[in-house]
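subagent[fold] <- orchestrator: predict structure for attached chain, return tokens only, no commentary.
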Amino acid sequence: MHAGSDTTSNIGDQCVKAVIIAGGFGTRLRPLSCTRPKHLFPIAGKPLLDWTLERLAKNGTDEVVFAVNYLFQAFVKRYGESAYGMKLHYSREARPLGTGGCVKNAEKIIGHDEPFLLLNGDILSNVDYARLFAEHRKNGATATMTLHKVDDPTRYGVVELGQKNRIKRFVEKPERGRAPSNLINAGVYALSPQIFNYISDKKPISIEREVFPLLVQDNRLFGYESEGLWIDIGEPSDYLKGNKLLLDAELKKGSIASSVELEGDVEINNPVVIGEHANIGEKSKIGPHVAIGENADIGKGVSIKNSIIFPGTVISDFSSLKGAIIGEDAIIGKWVKIEDNCIVGDHAIINDNVTLTKGVTVCPQKEVTESVLSPKCLM
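subagent[fold] -> orchestrator:
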């Protein structure tokens, strides 16, 4: 991810570890997160975590610790013991320990020799880790929080900055009109080993709500403002937006695998990414801002815009999708219309001539036989 600034500078000569928080349940992205961690959701053609790991490797990170809980086997199966030239560790929680407890749980793996990075695994960004580390060391901070400006800060932790970027106040998810600024916690931190002194052993604890306020009291929490690409993919609309931003930043000219079959008069409006062994029927219109997974089978006369299609999905003739997320091996019948922010779960079946209006969610393996014209979850 290169939008906004040079993001390939190196953190330094010494070995650097990064901890990725990847234990959340992804409740806002159900039903897709019922069968896979949201951190492995495909985005612009590859899992979200791959984008993060690739950037960490380019920036000089040597080891990564996955703080995992829910569906942790999926991470092990995907990445094993190494990825992008980095050694991987798995710090599994017997029960959910929160964003602070998971760091304490990985203390022995992280060690006490050097500062380390902590990243929320569902964040997509081009934060310059080298500059973040430089600011952290310059200030002698215990923690340095990456900050990002947003229009609506009520969904996030918000900070008030003092002199020399020292954080004076930290408010987690303030009420509308009560936020001290529009600078929010971007979910990327540089932490020194002293952070472990602020976290209780083997106990669920929120680093945002319980640890950062203590650091503010001790004048040990600093901010580093980052511009450029940043998004939390926790909501379906944000997941789609993240896909759009990445396609625009990385794949403006599109990417179609060599094994893809395009039948006559297929119209591709880039940016579009299509995975291996997919098939696109004649006179279909794909794009812009569409990611189609491997082995997908798209019929003739199909229209797909601003959508994410997981691997193995079948979309039959003359169907239309706009702003949709379609799970793995789902079957979409003929003349189906699926609108903004609809989610169709894995192996679901949408019968011919069905319309799903904005905000409909279809659970895995559910068969839908009639149109649904108001937002609801079909179980």
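orchestrator: received. Logging for downstream: Residues 119 and 213 are 19 Å apart (CA to CA). The helical segments are 48-58, 72-79, 98-105, 107-110, 129-139, 207-217, 236-250.
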